[in-house]
Amino acid sequence: MSGSQPSDPLDPISPKNPLRAGRREWAALVFIALAVLLIAIDGTVLSLAIPFISADLQPTSTQMLWIVDIYSFVLAGLLVTMGTLGDRIGRRRLLLIGAAGFGAASALIAFAPTAELLIAARALLGIAGATLLPSTLSLIRNIFSDPRQRTLAIGVWSAMAAGGAAAGPILGGILLEHFPWGSVFLINIPVMALLLIAGPWTIPESKNPDPGHFDVWSAILSLAAVLPVVYGIKNIVEQGPSTLLLMIMAAGFLAGTVFVRRQKRLTHPMLDMRLFKNRMFSGAVLTNLLTIFAFVGLLYFGSQYLQLVLALAPLEAGLALLPGMIASLLGSLLAAPLVQRIQLHRLVATGLLLAASGFFLLTQVPVAGTPLLFETAFILVGAGLGVVVALTNDTIVSAVPAERAGAASAVSETAYELGTALGTAILGTILAASYRAGLDFSSLTNTPQADSNRENARESISSALTTAADLPDNSAQTLIDLARTAFTQAVHTTSWVALGILLICAALALFVLRATPHTEDTGTP
Fold it and tell me: pLDDT of 425-445, one tens digit each?
């Protein structure tokens, strides 16, 4: 990264400043950012629509699990393959193919007449999402040659990814109050149509000039590695560990081992494993994964705390999350100017410590009252992690030659998906175990019906509140108070765990992200 004085990021490219992006490049970023926003929204918007889908299509419990999970399964499994494919056939071409597929799959979902067709359409949406995501980040890597502008552009990309995940429930709540459940997917169609129209005019094509042979076996192995691991993690959260799930995950790890060994032998590997010898690259990937791990854990228990403990309506809970998402957006955008004044490793560590302070406040949230303390904590977490995610993504794609940007982008996004799965699984398991351990039924009368109520209450706070609805007023209020107290204590415990992880991550960032100055764009592994 050069040491030249900063200028207006919308300055056109000129002979005096040949690397800087102009208005066309920033216009391209707008359309890329919209695509990222919709992909992130689609990962979470379904949560509020589940009751409506159940009433309309009447899926079995197994079908409902697949409706919810297959999008993220397919998306995670195909990221590496699609990132490499974009390097070969052209990232803009793959982006536009993905946009067309995303719009078509969204229409199929919105009007699906059966659960089976809905599952198939959600799988197609995952394929299209995997096609779009690596293309978006790798195009930014190639469009913005000036490192300062690239950091800002990746900050926008990161803000859209994080903001979309939290905006999904808010947008879903608004639409479902007025329209059928399919409306939450129909919003994708006009945006993807706009991308198809404007993309060829604003987004320049880029690809690897010497990509080598596309190795089909590597593509199969990457899918066989990621898909079973993500599937196993998600199902362990819902069902608890089992021999079958552990065997499925073991098969994924075995496929991953074979994949790595194959990449080391190939002249043109799908994923150059030498990248991980670069301490900046591997450190940024790990930091990114752990950051998303903590953030997703917060989203997982935060929405339950707001709705089930503080008794906020779904839309009110979504709005309570909004200040934190705005803070995340601002943190992502401020990362670019801040890193010009503060060394990368120190800035990333500072962001992680800021987020850790937010988790400390979460260890103090009350059982009753207003969401003010939670909102303050979420603002700190959002601001800190917004800076971190933007800088780690920038570091990952800047650590490789421009022609391999698709593969590097896929690594970044795979870390995001694994962080999401692990955050939900591990922190979700800690939350559930802490909740069950914190339930104190000594104030309840010992009767057969009370024993049944206890078992139901141990399942989750949601089950406890549902059980309480059928009890007499005094008994119901006692059970509600017990469940809310136990869940709040579980939030405290889970927040301490997340805080510890972020502190370890901050120490890691101070060590590994000082390998080379952030301002140096070597373009080599």
Answer: 778 778 888 888 888 766 665
CA distances from 34 to 4, 98, 151, 192, 394 (A): 31, 14, 18, 9, 19
How far apart are alpha carbons 415 and 420 in whole angstroms? Answer: 8
User: Measured between alpha carbons, how far is 165 from 169 in angstroms, rounded to an integer?
Assistant: 8
Query: Is residue 41 within 8 Å of 164, Cβ to Cβ?
Result: yes
The secondary element (H helix, E strand) that includes residue 522 is: none
* Residue 205: C-alpha distances to residues 18, 198, 200, 202, 213 (Å): 18, 13, 8, 10, 20
How far is it, in rounded angstroms, from Cα 244 to Cα 449? 34
Q: What would the DSSP string read from start to end of 266-309?
A: -SS-SS-GGGGGSHHHHHHHHHHHHHHHHHHHHHHHHHHIIIII
pLDDT above 70 covers what percent of the chain?
Answer: 88
- The answer to whether 11 and 154 are in contact (CB under 8 A) is no
Which residues on adjacent β-strands are paired with residue 17? 14
Rounded CA gap, 224 and 283, in Å? 25
**Residue 503 domain-assigned?**
no
370 vs 206, higher pLDDT: 370
- The pLDDT score that the predictor gives to residue 282 is 87
The domain that holds 68 is classified in CATH as 1.20.1250.20
The total of structural domains in the chain comes to 1
- β-sheet bridge partners, residue 14: 17
Domain that holds residue 142: 20-148+158-214
Q: Is 17 helix (H, G, I), strand (E, B) or coil?
A: strand
CA distance 120 to 170: 26
- What is the rounded distance in angstroms from the CA atom of residue 483 to the CA atom of residue 462? 9
Q: Does residue 195 form part of some domain?
A: yes
CA–CA separation, 422 and 269 (whole Å)? 27
- Give pLDDT tens digits for 250-293: 999 999 999 989 988 888 787 778 778 888 888 899 998 899 88
Is the residue at 164 inside a domain?
A: yes
For residue 403, give the DSSP letter: G
Burial of residue 342, with CB atoms counted within 10 A of its CB: 0-12 exposed, 13-18 middle, 19 or more buried: middle
State residue 5's pLDDT score. Answer: 37
Mean pLDDT of 515-522: 45
CB-facing half-sphere around the CA of 352: CA atoms within 13 A: 30
What is the per-residue pLDDT for 151?
84
Identify whether the C-beta of residue 116 lies closer than 8 Å to the C-beta of residue 171. Answer: no
| 129 and 161 Cβ atoms separated by less than 8 Å | no
Compute the C-alpha angle 292/125/407, nearest 5°.
55
The answer to the question of residue 39 being in a domain is yes
Sole residue written with tokens 């808010």:
170
Q: What distance separates the 2 farthest-apart alpha carbons in the chain?
A: 84
